[in-house]
Amino acid sequence: MSQATTDILLLAIGVVALLTALSFFGEVLRARQPEGRTSTVVETFVMRVHTWWAMVLLLALALIVGFPGVLLLFAFASFAALREFMTYTHKRRADHLSLAAAFFVVLPLQYVFLWTGDEGLFGTFVPVYAFLLLPMLSAFRGDTRSFLVRVAETQWGLMIAVFCLSHLPALMVLDIPGFENRTALLIVFFVMVVQAGDLLAFYFGLRLGRTRIAPDLSPRTWEGTICGLASAALVGAALAWITPFGVFPAMVMASVASATGMAGSLVFTAIKRERGVSDWSHLIPGQGGFLDQLDSAIFAAPIFFHLTGTIWAV
Amino acid sequence: MAKTAPGTPSLLRRLAARAAGHAIVLFARFVTAVRADWRGSEPVPRQRIYYANHVSNGDMPMIWSVLPPAIRRTVRPVAAADYWLQTPLRAFIGPEVFRCVLIDRRPEHRTADPVETMVAALDEGASLILFPEGNRNMTEDPLLPFRSGLYHLAKARPDVDLVPTWVANLNEIMPKGEVIPLPLICTVTFGASVHLEPGEDRAAFLDRAARALVALAPDRRLPPGEAA
């Protein structure tokens, strides 16, 4: 058995054990509720654990299939995220073609460039070419009402749901000496530290939270956030063996990923608040939509990718 | 044999119609993640007329797709004969897949009174999907003035529930004249049922029914300035 397979197997056993423990813990919390009562916090926790089971199974399946499987999974996640985002943007009939191009041309091409290993186009296609071409398609139709708002929001959606999110599977194409065939583990590391940071920030926020970061916007507190970041760093240290980082750099990388993720999540809260929605959709039972689930990963992925690429890859 | 239903097609055609129906539901779910929001009505097999806003040819398949399968089998959309009989493919999808109650919008071509045709379908036990605006709404207003058909049906069969059904976003997903549907989230909201009240005249009833429908439209807060 190769080193990579052993690592993945060990990790899978660890993750399944952890999720089983969390599921058990959730049921204990439920059982401790008085007869006939339910607590929203406990139900949220149980729902989250259920979603993690689904995420772990999907990611594991994709990793078994290999790079094409991972690409397919994230292309679908991009599609679902873009669909939720574009539902709430300004658009008029004149944008129909450019929006169709965003969904059916730009999104697939971004993942095709990743597949073919065309790094130049992967990095420039959405921020340069789509940025220039899509407004042209809208302008040809001649409708100028809220034009700049329309094209800017379309571009923002593409950057978020396609460009940023595609940096997560892109971790697999990094060329890290001594870490060949194991780059998929970086995705696992990233997802686990970001999720752990989010959950523990939520938990410590409930327990110790006093000072709100953005009082008008979100219940997030400095106390919860700092504890969440520290927990992410600890999880990062515990998982350092699956990364090329080493223990201390793994802690730093985990906190950076977690911090950008939490701040990104706050940005999404601001957008949702402006548009008057509480969740992006109802596709994930009890937890809103794909964007609600992916918001922190979306903001953290490009930074994590570039840091890893600059420091460790050749 | 029911007089408003199409003649019994062969087993093979009926199987093909079932398969096409499933394909339409899957396609609608994949593209728009369409979802039913039962707000005031429950998805129970009562005889109903689901009356809805109409902005796109995709409206009717969306409502049809979100209904639970057992209810879907009893529901027949009311649709324009001049549209659904135009090509052999449409003549298969409209009458056989959706089992549309076809009426002619052009009075000069009519062989039957549309209200009588719809009442006959109700008397056979079917529920209906009806677009009381008559045409697709191309204006900025939420609804066009209702035609009188809904009133005549409410008067002729007062026991049937009239369920307001708001289809959100279809004007952006599939506007008139476009061929590629945009994948945006579509929600179909079903409100509390409306009945004709004793002594209520046509204008008052249609006005009340229209307001019950518009009340279901999502309150989409767009930033100040121009709403797109």
From TrEMBL, chain A:
Presence of the UniProt keyword Isomerase in the record: no
Cellular component, GO, one term: plasma membrane
UniProt cross-references to Pfam families, sorted A to Z: CTP_transf_1 (PF01148)
Transmembrane segments: 54-82, 94-114, 120-140, 147-172, 184-206, 226-244, 250-271
Keywords: Membrane, Nucleotidyltransferase, Transferase, Transmembrane, Transmembrane helix
Example GO molecular function: nucleotidyltransferase activity
GO biological process: peptidoglycan-based cell wall biogenesis
Domain of life: Bacteria
PANTHER family: PHOSPHATIDATE CYTIDYLYLTRANSFERASE
Protein name per Swiss-Prot or TrEMBL: Phosphatidate cytidylyltransferase
Organism expressing this protein natively: Histidinibacterium aquaticum
UniProtKB/TrEMBL annotation, chain B:
Phospholipid/glycerol acyltransferase domain sequence ranges: 48-170
Pfam families in the record: Acyltransferase
BP GO terms, sorted: phosphatidic acid biosynthetic process
Keywords, alphabetical: Acyltransferase, Transferase
GO molecular function: 1-acylglycerol-3-phosphate O-acyltransferase activity
UniProt entry tagged with the keyword Transferase: yes
Pathway(s) this gene product operates in, as recorded in its UniProt entry: Lipid metabolism
Name of this protein: 1-acyl-sn-glycerol-3-phosphate acyltransferase
Species of provenance: Histidinibacterium aquaticum
